[in-house]
């Protein structure tokens, strides 16, 4: 938890610093720790901790990003010398976007197909030195910078080619599989799919880190734009009257307060995700993979939406780098695709839910885990007429979110099963049902995040704090229920949809007196916010030029 906290603070300060540290400690160091065994730990971990070697993580290639199984880098074994030979066989196999590779890294973990005696044993990881102690690139290795990016330019992303680079047999990270000195492939996991899953499981921490850090950027943007809206005025309602504060306009409240509610929800969910990871067991790896995939996609998408809205809410000042909001957009855009493309992650979530459904049916047992226990209960019913009291009731809110998830899971299973009955393969069937898969992934995520909000609220004693948090919880629930899927799939009538929108406006009005307290509670240090969060007239005065 201390490590998470340290990285979170770094991410608030500078995304490039966060990424450089993350690549070295979590990716390079994590690969040694989790993919390696004792002799790797003894040889590499202390130097990693001391930063006397600088590591990077060579997984993605020009031709392959999310599809790790399709990597084209090839490694063979030479039993005469006891060495692995790593080669980039074509241009699309060049390692690409490797953080730290262009300037600083001395070593890397290379992910490559392993071919033993003509048989491809799948993707494995190898330690390779790419620079000497003086920073010179090692023989048979070529490295070039990826070039200027829309953000994250403090990270030296590089491209790497390997021209039959030889490394000792001991440089294979062998926690899952090994190669004997005479060239025999050894693994306690015979099934290639299970072997690949075991191999990839430790990488979950990357998604956890990214999900968590994205929440903090939303907090920075909202803390800035709310403070600005509490001091910036525009237009008078009557002649000779003072101009109106931006945050006193209902339209400005409607654009920012739902985002505050969303950020509180993400914050509670991020804490839940951290604890899930910290308390992990081999049995919980699948749950962590599903939840981290769902939250990483949802949080990073939400973050980009929040940064854009806050940028616009700050007007021209949102464009200034020193005010941070606009700059954060470019810096954090990458999070939507690194450590897993968000659309693909959401499809993985839906596939996992499909598997849970089929397993429950096959065993004729109840649903257990992933919050799917609601599937064992009678289907919730939404009242024909939604009153303000009903809309603010946490039980109604949970019922509505569970109803959507339940119905979409049933629809998804039915549609995939229909495709398979027509002779389509599993993968083809899932591909043809991609729209339902996306909607189901979102429904799962919204319900899971909402549950963490409710859990946080129940820990508070009755009083004003719990009242305000309850208002925020209702606002978060209703912006989820306002989603087009509730009308599209018939969970809400058009009239009830209009009632939801009206209630959201009321909730925003009620939160107006608490605006500053809500963003101050994020605890972002003043030094990490831009000048428009404070006395922006003084910051722009001639005397400051």
Helix-strand blueprint:
Layout: H1 2-13, H2 15-35, H3 38-50, E1 55-58, E2 74-78, E3 83-87, E4 95-98, E5 107-116, E6 119-129, E7 141-145, E8 158-162, E9 165-168, E10 177-179, E11 185-187, H4 192-200, H5 204-229, H6 250-278, H7 285-313, H8 325-332, H9 342-363, H10 388-391, H11 394-421, H12 426-432, H13 434-458, H14 464-481, H15 484-488, H16 494-511, H17 515-520, H18 536-539
Parallel strand pairs: 1-5, 2-5
Antiparallel strand pairs: 2-3, 3-9, 4-8, 5-6, 7-8, 10-11
Helix pairs in contact: 1-2, 1-5, 2-3, 5-6, 5-7, 6-7, 6-13, 6-14, 6-16, 7-8, 7-9, 7-13, 9-13, 11-12, 11-13, 11-14, 13-14, 14-16
> How does CATH name the architecture of the largest domain?
Up-down Bundle
SS field, number of helical segments: 18
CATH homologous superfamily descriptor of the largest domain: Butyryl-CoA Dehydrogenase, subunit A, domain 3
Task: Bin the helical content.
Answer: 40-55%
Number of domains: 2
Shape from CA axes?
globular
The CATH topology assignment of the largest domain is Butyryl-CoA Dehydrogenase, subunit A, domain 3
What share of the residues does DSSP label as strand, in percent? Answer: 5-15%
Rg on CA atoms, Å: 26 Å
Residue runs with pLDDT of under 50 for 5 or more positions: none
Structural class: alpha+beta
CATH level-1 class of the largest domain:
Mainly Alpha
**Topology order in helix (H) and strand (E) letters:** HHHEEEEEEEEEEEHHHHHHHHHHHHHHH
Keywords: FAD, Fatty acid metabolism, Flavoprotein, Lipid metabolism, Oxidoreductase, Peroxisome
InterPro entries: ACOX_C_alpha1, Acyl-CoA_Oxase/DH_mid-dom, Acyl-CoA_Oxase/DH_mid-dom_sf, Acyl-CoA_oxidase, Acyl-CoA_oxidase_C, AcylCo_DH-like_C, AcylCoA_DH/oxidase_NM_dom_sf
Family: Belongs to the acyl-CoA oxidase family.
Protein name: acyl-CoA oxidase
